[in-house]
Design a protein that fits this description.
Largest sheet: 7 strands, mixed
CATH architecture of the largest domain: 3-Layer(aba) Sandwich
Number of domains: 3
Number of strands: 16
Shape: globular
Number of helices: 17
Structural class: alpha/beta
Oligomer: single chain
Radius of gyration: 25 Å
Strand content: 15-25%
CATH topology of the largest domain: Rossmann fold
Strand order of the largest sheet: 6-5-4-7-8-9-10
Helix content: 25-40%
Length: about 500
């Protein structure tokens, strides 16, 4: 939680001290509490013009901005109902697992009030439970649907996280014997070391042999999916609604038939695991057609570094004490191909698709998961958006490893719609980070142009500089992209450029 504009954060400190357990690594549905310092309570209702406004005596501008991106907003202008408003905001964020906005007049923090006289007590939110009749009906319809299928499969989606249903999903895999895949933004939510894991389902850019098994199945259960133009590769999925069971956090839809509300995903998957028949046909089919992927071509001495060689080395760095953050761009596709060891964390953001998000995400993840060393793969264009967060990483003494892939522009945009606006001003990235470091804290930078230099830099980062923030700038050719980005970019470009429907 970040505070802005408040002079004395006494009340805000009480909020932050509330002992709430928030699940780690939340992705698309985040219980974020945005705390803003608001105008002096005496200024409301006057005709005064204040700073941080557009010059009108209207103090609701910021509130209106946040209304579209938060599920609850509260403006605290007096102490009488401050406690109630704050409690309601926190409870709503946790219950809905969505952001809330809380504005507190800047003259209120630090003032005593009886409602804040006791230390905060832990929140208790009643768990959400399924409607028992609805749960039974949903399980019965799903069992009938799946048990009639010849080669059913399972696909995990990103809302497994908010539903806290990852373990229940794996239990269903064990009970059913089905092959299972994950959608790209669900990578890391379920183990990839399970013998029935077949990779990432991402339409035309799926892991090798994964899409063929999923799309040829006669029944597929998607647990917590988000289907958008990016995850569907420009709406080019070869899926059929009548073959699909869609399980959302509180709802189940079976093919073209019935829908069941008030059914919690975790309970549903657990009950389904008790009754579904075992069927490993899809997995057996996968094993028949699977061919292990090859290795990148060996580099010539001092050959310019290729991105596929970089990720070959990143793969070797991963263990249960690692976590990976994949920036929007070609790192989406290269990081998807990494095989995560048991316990290795992974963060990936696709719904909004904003570039630069990973720098702030790295800062927050590393601060909250201090038992892991985080490896971030970030493009040069993305880094330029939020580079200043490196300063806070250093102040917080973080020891993450940043691979800055410098290929001279917005490569993902080039593959969707090219133009001169995708070329950026090149920075001296290592020099910038050294300047931010300014001799204070632990920081080490390196610029690499070939595999020999990369190997040496990784050895240093994992060895003598293991307690430092390590920033490794990788010089790559502007056209060095994954084959998946080329395919994905072409399909998304085609979807974006569809002509208007005739009137």
């Amino acid at each position: 939680m970040r505070t802005t504009g408040a002079r004395d954060p006494a009340i805000l400190v009480k909020i932050i001290r509330v002992p709430i357990k928030i699940p780690k690594n939340l992705r698309e549905n985040l219980p974020v509490i945005c705390i803003a310092g608001g105008p002096n309570s005496n200024d409301y209702g006057t005709n005064r013009i204040l700073h941080h406004t557009i010059g009108l005596p209207d103090f609701s501008q910021e509130l209106r901005c946040f209304q579209t991106v938060t599920c609850h907003q509260a403006v605290v202008t007096n102490l009488e109902d401050a406690h109630e408003q704050i409690d309601t905001a926190i409870a709503t964020a946790l219950r809905e697992s969505k952001p809330v906005y809380l504005s507190i007049s800047c003259n209120l923090p630090g003032l005593p009030h009886p409602t804040f006289s006791r230390d905060p007590v832990p929140f208790f939110l009643a768990p959400r439970l399924s409607n028992k009749m609805g749960l039974e009906a949903a399980v019965e319809a799903t069992v009938e649907f799946l048990n009639k299928a010849v080669k059913p499969v399972l696909v995990g989606g990103p809302k497994l996280r908010v539903a806290k249903a990852g373990k229940a999903f794996v239990d269903l895999v064990d009970a059913s014997g089905y092959a299972y895949a994950v959608m790209p933004s669900a990578k890391g939510l379920v183990p990839e070391t399970h013998p029935h894991f077949i990779g990432t389902y991402w339409g035309a850019v799926s892991t090798a042999f994964c899409a063929e098994i999923v799309e040829s199945a006669d029944a597929y259960l998607f647990a917590g999916p988000i289907f958008n133009d990016y995850s569907s590769v420009g709406y080019s999925f070869l899926l059929k609604k009548d073959k699909a069971i869609i399980v959302q956090p509180e709802r189940v839809i079976v093919g073209n038939g019935p829908a069941f509300g008030c059914v919690m995903m975790k309970e549903f998957l657990s009950e389904l695991a008790k009754r579904v028949s075992k069927n490993s046909t899809a997995f057996e089919n996968y094993k028949r057609i699977f061919v292990p992927e090859g290795q990148p071509l060996e580099s010539e001495p001092n050959e310019p570094l290729r991105v596929n060689v970089l990720f070959k080395h990143i793969q070797k760095m991963l263990n249960s004490d690692s976590a990976v953050i994949a920036e929007t761009g070609d790192s989406w596709f290269n990081c998807q191909k990494l095989k995560l060891p048991e316990g290795c964390g992974y963060e990936f953001q696709m719904q909004y698709g904003s570039i630069g998000w990973s720098v702030g995400a790295l800062l927050g993840y590393a601060q909250g998961a201090q038992d892991k060393r985080v490896i971030a793969c970030i493009g040069d264009g993305s880094f330029q958006v939020t580079a200043q967060d490196v300063s806070t990483m250093l102040r917080c003494e973080q020891n993450s490893i940043i691979f800055l892939i410098n290929n001279g522009g917005y490569t993902i945009e080039v593959e969707i719609h090219d133009g001169p606006y995708n070329v950026i001003k090149n920075w001296n990235y290592t020099g910038l980070v050294d300047a931010i470091h300014n001799g204070e804290g632990k920081c080490w930078t390196s610029k690499v142009k070939c595999e020999e230099e990369l190997t040496e830099a990784i050895g240093t980062a994992l060895g003598e500089k293991k307690d430092c923030l390590c920033f490794i700038e990788v010089i790559a050719h502007k056209d060095d992209t994954s084959k998946e980005l080329l395919e994905w970019g072409s399909r998304v470009s085609a979807a974006n450029s569809r002509p208007p429907n005739p009137q």
